Amino acid sequence: MADFNGAASLRLVSNSPTITTVGALGVDVLKANGFEVLANGTACAALNTDDGSSLVTGIYTINLGTGAATLVGNYNGTLSGLTVSAVPEPQTYALMLAGLLAIGSLARRRNR
């Protein structure tokens, strides 16, 4: 798990009770809207920042070794949260269909 310590640095939290500060983000963050860890040792985050004249949401890559954040791109305005819809895998549909067929065959057997 990762969190933003006072919006100034990145802290990594594992299953153990210790928290390790990795390093400064280099960005004054007001709010983190999303955080995804990639296999190559970096992470992506949607961070709300104040550029002095307005609130801006930017997508940043974060080096998990140093904690440094690098701006990839900005949105016009801010994000208030990311909503992700779950998409079932084909095996889920197959299992649901098998269950419906089993219930249908039992109901048909009872009616005979």
**Widest beta sheet: strand line-up:** 4-5-6-7
Order of helices and strands: EEEEEEEH
Rg computed from alpha carbons, rounded to a whole number of angstroms: 22 Å
Classify the helix fraction into a percent range.
10-25%
Beta-strand level of the residues, as a percent range?
Answer: 35-45%
How many H/I helices? 1
Provide the low-confidence segments as ranges: none
- On the 0 to 100 scale, the average pLDDT is 76
What general outline do the C-alpha atoms trace?
elongated
Q: Quickly count the domains.
A: 1
Q: Could you describe the largest sheet, including whether it forms a barrel? A: 4 strands, antiparallel
Counted beta strands: 7
The span between the termini is: 56 Å
Structural class: alpha+beta
Question: How would you describe the overall organization of this protein?
Answer:
- The protein is of the alpha+beta class and 112 residues long.
- The chain has one domain.
- It is 20% helix and 43% strand.
- The chain contains one helix and seven strands; from the N terminus they run E-E-E-E-E-E-E-H.
- The protein has a four-stranded antiparallel β-sheet with strand order 4-5-6-7, with no helix packed on it. A three-stranded antiparallel β-sheet has the order 1-2-3, with no helix packed on it.
- A hairpin with a 5-residue loop joins strand 6 (55-63) and strand 7.
- The longest helix has 22 residues, at 90-111.
- The radius of gyration is 22 Å and the shape is elongated.
- The N and C termini lie far apart (56 Å).
- The mean pLDDT is 76.
Features:
20% helix, 1 helix, three-stranded antiparallel β-sheet
